[in-house]
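User: Need the bound-state model for adenosine-5'-diphosphate:
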Amino acid sequence: MNILVINAGSSSLKYQLLNPETQQVLAKGLCERIGIDGKFTYKPEGKEAIKEADVAMPTHNEAIKAVLDALVAPGNGVIGSMKEIDAVGHRVVHGGEKFAKSVLITEEVMAAIEECNPLAPLHNPANIIGIRACQELMPGTPMVAVFDTAFHQTMPAAAYMYALPYEYYEKDKVRRYGFHGTSHKYVTQRAAAMLGKPIEELKLISCHLGNGSSITAVDGGKSVDTTMGFTPLAGVPMGTRSGDLDAGILQYLMNKYGMGIDEMLNVLNKKSGVEGLSCVSSDFRDLEAAAAKGDEKAALAQKKFAYEVKKYVGAYAAAMGGVDAIIFTAGVGENDKAIRSMVCEGLEYMGVKLDAAANDVRGKEAVISAADSKAKVLLIPTNEELMIAIDTAALVK
Ligand code: ADP
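Assistant: Bound-state model below.
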């Protein structure tokens, strides 16, 4: 079974054609600068990536048409015809409270996704445009929506409610939603497989540490709390996002510098996080290099990030009444042994003992805790495309 996975943004679109049963990726790539000057990248399995610039791509329709043409093209194509695409899985950022799992897309579902647009005004409209373009070009092919928020719909009210006047929840749906759900679901399922235990019996803390970061407590396979909130700005500091902060700071800075709320949020989303703190970069590789040369702010940014992640690990162990394994995933989690080590340092009282030699690893599934560590520490590369393809295949079978 071949599933085309589509992740549509406002001016870009990532795609992958894969078989969820064999996990074979037949081709993948991305369309960039849609509506501008169209850049197209296509990488068939086992061959070099093909890159084209100035591809006519005024809308997402032409971008998806370019993807489909490449997939069936003689020479570098990977399938004989479009009939060999059994279904399309679409990443959708926000499913609000309407979607607690992935769904087969119908007109009713499209209307419900549109109703979630105000909750993710930058992302959902782009996801919808991607779905519409595929529907036009592939009539009759089943489409599935996989939501970033769905996995977190199992959180109890005490975790998802903000202590605000209740009416803001009732009338305006202001609550914690959480994001990166597809990644947290994938790595926790892999963790259960690695530990050889049913997920229902495990208390797991999943640390998705990338450009955007979130930590999730997963008890018995269900998300019971997560650090991102109503928007992906909450939780730990990120590449350029501040993470949690005292809302009083907004009033103070806005008054002092005559900033409007949009300008303030631009600072919190794009100029804060480890980049803002270090004055160096949002990239952890740059922080590491600068810190090694004695840059104190870069070292502080690394420390601050690891400290906040560690605090949530402790908080979620408390929330679940223990932890069987801590998982590290995404760009930083999979590659940065120094950050992993800083997060785990001092957690011995919780039964967490990292093995320095085992931690000297990158980008592959590994147990990185010591043999006598009561709680295991796992490195698990995330694979959101595979999770989307698995969900999609299960729904269209
Ligand atoms: P996104 O949230 O954009 O999907 P990723 O999960 O791909 O992000 O993570 C990207 C981040 O991973 C980069 O900004 C960088 O900080 C970090 N990263 C990637 N490779 C390494 C590495 N070898 N060492 C440390 N950090 C790394």
